Automatic annotation (TrEMBL):
<feature type="binding site">
    <location>
        <begin position="7"/>
        <end position="13"/>
    </location>
    <ligand>
        <name>NAD(+)</name>
    </ligand>
</feature>
<keyword id="KW-0560">Oxidoreductase</keyword>
<dbReference type="InterPro" id="IPR036291">
    <property type="entry name" value="NAD(P)-bd_dom_sf"/>
</dbReference>
<dbReference type="InterPro" id="IPR015955">
    <property type="entry name" value="Lactate_DH/Glyco_Ohase_4_C"/>
</dbReference>
<dbReference type="Pfam" id="PF02866">
    <property type="entry name" value="Ldh_1_C"/>
</dbReference>
<keyword id="KW-0520">NAD</keyword>
<dbReference type="GO" id="GO:0006089">
    <property type="term" value="P:lactate metabolic process"/>
</dbReference>
<feature type="binding site">
    <location>
        <begin position="127"/>
        <end position="129"/>
    </location>
    <ligand>
        <name>NAD(+)</name>
    </ligand>
</feature>
<dbReference type="GO" id="GO:0004459">
    <property type="term" value="F:L-lactate dehydrogenase (NAD+) activity"/>
</dbReference>
<feature type="domain" description="Lactate/malate dehydrogenase N-terminal">
    <location>
        <begin position="2"/>
        <end position="141"/>
    </location>
</feature>
<feature type="domain" description="Lactate/malate dehydrogenase C-terminal">
    <location>
        <begin position="154"/>
        <end position="244"/>
    </location>
</feature>
<dbReference type="InterPro" id="IPR001557">
    <property type="entry name" value="L-lactate/malate_DH"/>
</dbReference>
<dbReference type="InterPro" id="IPR022383">
    <property type="entry name" value="Lactate/malate_DH_C"/>
</dbReference>
<comment type="similarity">
    <text>Belongs to the LDH/MDH superfamily. LDH family.</text>
</comment>
<dbReference type="Pfam" id="PF00056">
    <property type="entry name" value="Ldh_1_N"/>
</dbReference>
<feature type="active site" description="Proton acceptor">
    <location>
        <position position="182"/>
    </location>
</feature>
<protein>
    <submittedName>
        <fullName>Lactate dehydrogenase</fullName>
    </submittedName>
</protein>
Length: 356
């Protein structure tokens, strides 16, 4: 099985390539294609990246080659990690609409080239932001089931990690999903949280303790307040800003910590790459496994009495041919209200200029 990484010379793309090789997800007998844009600085850098990867991993590196044009992208799994990224400086707000306008043409160019010149069964894992827009563009060109955004899986892993941290257990012992939009529109599903080795009563008690009296109705306001507090503190004392996050509940931490990491200038390359490589590994594994991902829905779920036709993050079954099914259990009332509202926002952002 071959993998192509579009935007391989970028901060995230480079880390994805490293982890694909280091975790032996792309075996020696397969090919890793590094894709950059002809005429840009990354077109030179990608040749250097190829040499560096071979230098570091000579014993178990796959065949590594370079492509500089969308119509040369060839692989079984294609990771889309190219595009403009939000500014990573404290206090600079993220304008996802401007990001969308910039990256839309880029998504179209690769989606159409792969549709035209590809094998017809590539699976695309989307990393680029806005994830929902990229999923929408690729799904339209290639077919819905072959395209998965990795944002919901990354958010889900972070949620599990933060819960595990609060309880002093390993992340592997915690289940549960984050759905909705990657970024401020993420929807933590407390109703889906499970713990290895706990009875139902113990689980209910643990969730109540972690979550307190809060519901998702107040979550957007909590996020806005959290960002304001962090933005102010991060200007003068980044360490104190990270320490402040530690005092918050797990769902808020799952959103705030990576947000501040990006603002700090460090970016979230390692964690993002880790979650991306998990999904590539799942596609290669051959079994169908439950993960979370942004997918283009066409009535697979019903919320507030209406079938959903939009892109959103949901738990899905992922396998060698892409995603096959959505596995969303009935939601708590506040979760359903929040997800409906977030899907409304996503739909509006995918079709700017159209009346609601
Ligand atoms: N989903 C997530 O959780 C998540 C997390 C972090 C970053 N991201 C997104 O990933 C993307 C990349 O982020 P980054 O930090 O690596 O940015 P970066 O600026 O370091 O790298 C972007 C790369 O894309 C390349 N590129 C731009 N146009 C291209 C084209 N037409 N063809 C091929 N390559 C092209 C650039 O040359 C550059 O190498 C951004 O959209 C960012 O928002 C997503």
């Amino acid at each position: 099985m071959d993998v192509a990484v579009i935007g391989a010379a970028g901060a995230i793309g480079r880390q994805i390539c490293v982890q694909l090789i280091e975790r032996r997800v792309v075996p020696v007998s397969s090919r890793l294609q590094l894709v950059a844009r002809e005429g840009s600085a990354s077109a030179s850098a990608v040749h250097g990246l190829r040499a560096d990867l071979i230098d570091a991993y000579a014993e178990h590196a796959p065949l590594i080659d370079v492509a500089l044009h969308p119509h040369d992208v060839v692989a079984d799994v294609i990771v889309m990690a190219a595009g403009r990224t939000p500014p990573s400086r404290p206090g600079v707000p993220v304008d996802r609409h401007a990001l969308a306008a910039d990256n839309r043409a880029l998504f179209h160019s690769y989606a159409h080239a792969i549709a035209r010149h590809g094998s017809g069964h590539e699976v695309v894992i989307v990393v680029s932001n806005p994830v929902e827009l990229a999923v929408s563009v690729f799904a339209e060109a290639l077919g819905r089931h072959r395209v998965v955004g990795m944002g919901a899986w990354l958010d889900t892993l972070r949620f599990r990690h933060e819960i595990a941290g609060s309880l002093g257990v390993r992340r592997q012992g915690v289940g549960g999903f984050i759905v909705g939009q990657h970024g401020d529109g993420l929807v933590p599903l407390w109703s889906s949280v499970r713990f290895t080795g706990l009875t139902v009563d113990e689980r209910v008690e643990a969730v109540a303790r972690l979550r307190g009296e809060r519901t998702l109705d107040a979550f957007p306001a909590e996020v806005a307040d959290a960002k304001l507090a962090l933005m102010e503190l991060a200007q003068t004392d980044m360490q104190a800003a990270f320490a402040l996050i530690d005092t918050w509940p797990p769902d808020l931490r799952a959103l705030a910590r990576p947000w501040l990491t990006h603002q700090s200038g460090a970016k979230t390359a390692s964690g993002t790459a880790g979650a991306t490589v998990d999904l590539v590994d799942t596609v290669f594994d051959g079994r169908e496994i439950v993960v979370a991902g942004q997918v283009s829905l066409a009535g697979e779920i019903t919320l507030a009495g209406r079938e959903v036709y939009s892109v959103t993050g949901v738990p899905i079954i992922l396998g060698p041919e892409g995603w096959t099914r959505v596995v969303l259990d009935p939601l708590a009332p506040d979760e359903e209200r929040r997800l409906v509202s977030v899907i409304g926002d996503i739909t509006a952002s995918l079709h700017p200029g159209e009346a609601a």
